[in-house]
Specification:
It is a single chain. With 301 residues, the protein is α/β, with parallel strands linked by helices. The protein has two domains: 214 residues, 3-Layer(aba) Sandwich (Rossmann fold), CATH 3.40.50.300; 80 residues, Alpha-Beta Plaits, CATH 3.30.70. It has twelve helices and 13 strands. The chain has a six-stranded mixed sheet, with helices on both faces. The chain has a four-stranded antiparallel sheet with strand order 11-12-10-13, with helices on both faces. Strand 6, helix 6 and strand 7 form a beta-alpha-beta unit. Helix 4 runs antiparallel to helix 5. The chain is globular. The two termini are 18 Å apart. The structure holds adenosine-5'-triphosphate. The site of adenosine-5'-triphosphate has 11 residues, from strand 2 and helix 1. It comes from Mycetocola zhujimingii.
Length: 301
């Protein structure tokens, strides 16, 4: 399978802040990838490097086979939606829609019109007076109607209501099915977006902690809960990412296959084992447990 994006040993320092620390992963062409992790994990930093708007301190980035930085033919293949998009003060929706095709060779007026209608974006209100959710809608119109081979959506949801988010999901899935493209999508609304993702990339404190097929990541994630002694006994050999102890009870979130011996022991010890959601998995990777640092190495890609 061809990779649309290759991030190879990328580091980005801002003074003493290590926003990215030796990050490597690839994004297969025509996949939808969820870029997940806590605040400050490095998602926006890596996305702006993919978008050619920033350069790594060291390492290599390739988008559609080329370093995107100041490379016009590659930049023409990228649509980048971020939450702090700025527009000239006097701009209204029609101004934005009129210039958008100049930057997007595959621009679809039909799709733009469908999105404007579905999001109910007011045509006459100056862009700077739009609500937070309406501003997000404008950015999504630009991002999706561009039909760019590489579409980067950094927190596209801010302020979007639940109906608008569902509409956005439907159009994203339908249109990227009809017009295949590679999508990298960062969000904190993880469970709501999980069904969109073919793959997930989880970052924490500037490092990559998981790069996996999304179904495999969800299927291998679990939560064990029971008395603290029993859960500790069961998790000695397991890939525990985070634990939570309340009174004499403990829950442990982890990842990896649970063998039949452990399942039998869980029954004897009355420990409940359930599947963890993607959101629980991301929270566990970001937890400040001593255990998470050591054991999650197993899952690092
Ligand atoms: N221009 C900059 N100067 C200094 N530090 C920066 C700069 N840009 C980012 N950082 C720092 O780099 C780290 C990663 O930031 P980044 O915006 O990539 O995180 P994020 O995962 O997108 O977070 P969030 O989910 O909160 O949007 C943070 O500690 C941030 O403060």
């Amino acid at each position: 399978m061809t990779n649309a994006i290759e991030i190879d040993s990328v580091t980005r320092h801002f003074g003493r802040v290590h926003a990215l620390d030796n990050v490597s992963f690839t994004v297969p062409e025509h996949s939808i990838v969820g870029l997940l992790g806590r605040n400050g994990a490095g998602k926006t930093t890596v996305m702006s490097i993919m978008a050619g708007q920033d350069r790594p301190t060291s390492g290599r980035v390739q988008v559609a086979g080329h370093d995107p930085f100041e490379h016009a033919p590659t930049l023409a293949q990228i649509s980048y939606v971020r939450d702090n998009q700025r527009y000239p003060d006097d701009y209204r929706l029609h101004h934005v829609l009129r210039i958008a095709p100049d930057f997007a060779p595959n621009w679809s007026e039909e799709l733009a019109a469908e999105l404007v209608d579905g999001f109910r974006i007011p045509a006459k209100t100056p862009i700077k007076k739009l609500s937070r959710g309406q501003l997000s809608s404008v950015a999504i119109v630009l991002g999706l109607a561009a039909r760019a081979p590489v579409t980067l959506l950094d927190e596209p949801y801010l302020g979007l209501d639940v109906t608008a988010r569902a509409f956005f999901h439907r159009v994203l899935l339908r249109d990227s099915g009809e017009h295949p493209r590679t999508v990298v999508f960062s969000t904190h609304l993880i469970d709501e977006s999980a069904s969109l993702f073919d793959r997930v990339v989880i970052m924490d404190a500037g490092r990559l902690v998981l790069n996996a097929d999304s179904d495999e990541a969800s299927e291998s994630a679990w939560v064990m809960s029971g008395t603290t002694d029993a859960v500790r006994q069961l998790t000695t050999a397991a890939n525990v990412l985070s634990t939570n102890v309340v009174g004499g009870l403990m829950s442990a979130t982890g990842s990896g296959v649970i063998d039949s011996g452990t399942l039998d022991l869980a029954e004897d010890l009355r420990v409940q084992i359930s599947r963890a959601s993607l959101q629980q998995l991301v929270a566990a990777y970001g937890a400040d447990d001593a255990e998470s640092d050591t054991i999650s190495e197993v899952r690092r890609a």
